[in-house]
Design goal:
It is built from 11 helices and 10 strands. The chain is α/β, with parallel strands linked by helices. α2 crosses α11 and α5 packs across α6. The longest helix is centred in the last third of the chain and has 17 residues, at about 225-240.
Length: about 260
């Protein structure tokens, strides 16, 4: 598969997946989702890959969904159907948790919307001190997708997950570490070095043990993850995407104004 929005390399047992489409700050559109599905599968199948690193660029990890695309579609009178896209990123999300190799997410700058979900989807998250996590879905009249609600409920409990999902307030790197979401916080300048040092340590570790630790944790906590993504996340997002509140939220975001939601 020709990669247009990702850079994928394998060296010394470490696969690095870099989201690299700054035109829309690494927003997760159909093309990005297809490429992520492909490389996650390739990394899992490749016996030369011992550890996987998922990263963005110095400017941003990922801005989440492509709101500009949705806005244009709404303005043209078209229907916004996210089912296919959400199904694809669901495969990516579950694939990262189910993968037999350790996955490190390396976050610099903004991780918004589905970008938060991808950042949470690894086994270890290492952040630059300028990292900012924003579950911005509610500000658009949507629900979190790419597994965010599921993962947050598992990791920080339902009350805190509810707060972050319902308020959409930003969470900085230090708070993410205090909540137990981030493994380590470092500087923007040292992020790559710290990430790769840890990746090399894991790559030199007991890989059979790591694989089976991941299997134990997956079976104990995420066995119904894909079912939840398919049967709960997609239908709830479908209802929100069909609402007038979503249209208003999307327009307000692009027009840089406060949305006037009506609960419809």
């Amino acid at each position: 598969m020709e990669l247009k929005k990702l850079i994928y390399t394998v060296e010394d047992g470490i696969a690095v997946i870099q989201m690299n489409y700054m035109k829309n700050l690494n927003a997760i559109d159909e093309q990005m989702a297809d490429e992520l599905m492909y490389v996650v599968d390739e990394a899992e199948k490749d016996p030369n890959v011992k550890v996987v690193v998922l990263k963005g660029t110095d400017r941003a990890f990922s801005a989440g969904g492509d709101i500009g695309y949705f806005y244009d579609l709404i303005q043209a009178g078209g229907e916004v159907n996210m089912d296919g896209l959400i199904a694809k990123v669901g495969i990516v999300a579950d694939g990262m948790k189910k993968m037999s190799k350790m996955v490190i997410t390396s976050v610099c700058g903004a991780a918004a919307g589905a970008g938060v979900s991808l950042a949470l989807g690894g086994d270890f998250m290492i952040c630059a001190d300028n990292a900012k996590f924003i579950l911005a879905f509610v500000n658009l009249g949507l629900v979190p997708d790419t597994g965010a609600t599921y993962l947050l409920s598992k990791s920080i409990g339902t009350s805190r997950a509810m707060e972050l999902a319902a308020t959409g307030r930003p969470v900085g790197a230090e708070e993410a570490k205090a909540l137990g979401l981030a493994y380590k916080v470092t500087t923007k300048e040292e992020l790559d070095e710290v990430t790769m040092k840890f990746a090399r340590k894991l790559a030199a570790g007991p890989l059979v043990s790591y694989k089976n630790i991941k299997k134990q944790i997956y079976d104990a906590n995420y066995a119904d993850y894909k079912k939840w993504l398919d049967e709960t996340e997609i239908p709830t997002q479908r209802e929100c995407a069909a609402s007038m509140d979503f249209q208003e939220g999307c327009k307000a975001f692009m027009e840089k104004r406060k949305p006037a939601f009506e609960g419809k």
